[in-house]
Amino acid sequence: MTILNTTLDQNQNQNQNQNQNQNQNQDQDQDQNQKPDHEPADRLLPYPDADLLFVTELLPRQERERLAELRAFFQDEIRPLAVDHWNRGAFPFGLVPELGARELVRLHLEEDSSLFAGLARMELVRADLSIATFLGVHSELFTSAVKLLGSDAQRERLLPDLISLRKIGCFALTEKDHGSDISRSMATTATRDGDEWIINGEKRWIGNGTFADYVLVWARDTADDQIKGFIVEKDRPGFSSKLIENKIAVRIVQNADLTFDNVRIPFENWLPGTKSFIDTNGLLLKSRVWVAWQSVGIQLAAFDVAREYAVKRLQFGRPIASFQLIQEQLVRMIGNANLTLSLLVQIARLQEEGSLTMDQAALAKAMGTTRMRETVALGRSILGGNGVTTDFEIAKIFADAEAVYSWEGSYEVNALIVGRAITGISAFV
Ligand SMILES: Cc1cc2nc3c(=O)[nH]c(=O)nc-3n(C[C@H](O)[C@H](O)[C@H](O)COP(=O)(O)OP(=O)(O)OC[C@H]3O[C@@H](n4cnc5c(N)ncnc54)[C@H](O)[C@@H]3O)c2cc1C
Predict the structure, then answer these.
(1) Which residues pair with 288 in a beta bridge?
(2) Of all atoms in ligand 1, which is nearest to the CA of residue 413?
């Protein structure tokens, strides 16, 4: 392999030298001071941060400045520690107080404009999907549930520590035998016994599940057969968690199998806003949109790495970014990212109006993640052999994308939601 490459390189070098001489002559003819076309221009590129459609310009100045600050923090403080922790499957607990001090949980609590919140969460994913997922599971799925579906007493008792990240939550819906069909076939049960509930069952894949202080567990009330949400504190007898190891994606996130063996909790640990599974709709609508934003963050992360590599990596004596085929691939990557981003601008507008439907959120998740899969594959390929080691970051991004494709309703399930909306026929079973 090496010999072949060397011979090829020698031949090509000769050709190149001739070509370069010709090019040099031409260049000199054209403009003595101009650099050859294949060298990256020194001037600033016209689209900072790959925002080709000036989406950030839609934000008012104050939000634009805040977004720039957040982006700098994510890129400077989070991105550099991600690969090492990802490789080791280790969670950076030391970072949590800083995330709390910056009140990043609020990005998920609908306190900002939908577009700003989306772009800010996208930027965190761009730095690292795992850390974004830790924060999102805690904020979007647990803290939002307490805020939207909890009682006044629960909100008062829990929210301050959740917002400052002094206490961490997780969201336990999926089971070993039930993922896509969880709303129909949930096996975990909650049985009322006087002033208490008794929870029995097993949950799978639960992010933050090894260390969360609180679990929001979804269980079928044996009295009326409806699915409801309950808060279980981690030290309740009968509760246990086991880390899921050997993942190929989001390796920093501590996903766990959880067991509830006759776990007794006080009656008031039930979230009163959850009388049936339909009550989770508002929550799942929001989290589905968040995952669509993840698909843009991942694409931009892949683009950032691939672009930087392509302008620096020399082959045949020129940066690979000077080859037409590589430029086309970079354009497809940034094009995919901007297509998804444009879709999300409209989704954010519908959210602001309060008219966003689950069909629309499912469309954004399904289409964003298909674009994402193509984008990360192109990015990985642009790095050639270096694309298969996490040392160059892209392999982490490539692998992480697979989790986004499957969670929050797999691609197929989201496609079926849209399919039902456009045909009037449910094809789930
Ligand atoms: C890294 C990671 C983190 C996660 N974190 C959490 C968490 O914090 N909390 C939580 O509750 N869950 C979590 N999940 C679970 C996630 O939501 C589920 O994996 C997802 O809903 C899919 O369920 P499943 O894995 O059981 O796949 P299945 O439902 O078994 O699906 C397997 C395949 O069959 C397809 N399929 C299923 N039904 C149909 C159908 N009717 N028509 C066509 N195709 C179909 C699916 O699209 C998929 O391709 C996480 C998952 C992962 C991988």
Answers:
(1) none
(2) 47
In this structure, what CATH number is given to the domain that contains residue 291? Answer: 1.20.140.10
99 and 212, same domain (yes or no): no
Are residues 416 and 283 part of one domain?
A: yes
> Which residue lies with its CA nearest to atom 24 of ligand 1?
179
User: Are 82 and 204 found together in one domain?
Assistant: no
d(CA 307, CA 326) in angstroms, rounded, equals 10
Assign residue 261 the CATH number of its domain: 2.40.110.10
The pLDDT score that the predictor gives to residue 84 is 98
pLDDT tens-digit map of 12-39 = 444 444 444 444 444 444 444 456 666 6
Q: What tens digit of pLDDT does each residue of 297-341 get? A: 999 999 999 999 999 999 999 999 999 999 999 999 999 999 999
**Cα angle 135, 139, 145; round to 5:** 155
| Rounded Cα gap, residues 129 and 180, in angstroms | 22
Integer Cα distance of 209 and 31 in angstroms: 63
Domain boundary pick from 249, 276, 303? 276
Distance of CA 428 from the midpoint of ligand 1 (Å): 14
Please work out whether the CB of residue 217 comes within 6 Å of at least one atom of ligand 1: no
For residues 328 and 386, state if they share a domain.
yes
114 with 348: CB under 8 angstroms? yes
Find the 224 Cα to ligand 1 centroid distance in Å. 26
- Residue in the block written with tokens 């931009």: 300
Tell me if 173 CB under 6 Å of ligand 1: yes
Counting from 1 in the atom list of ligand 1, the atom nearest the Cα of 247 is 1
> What domain range is 331 assigned to?
279-423
Residues 6+ apart with CB under 8 A from 237: 263, 264
Using a 6 Å cutoff on CB, does residue 283 contact ligand 1?
A: no
Same domain for 90 and 129? Answer: yes
Domain boundary among 142, 164, 186: 164
Chain-centre distance of CA 353, in angstroms?
Answer: 24
Quote the ligand 1 centre to 176 CA distance (angstroms). 10
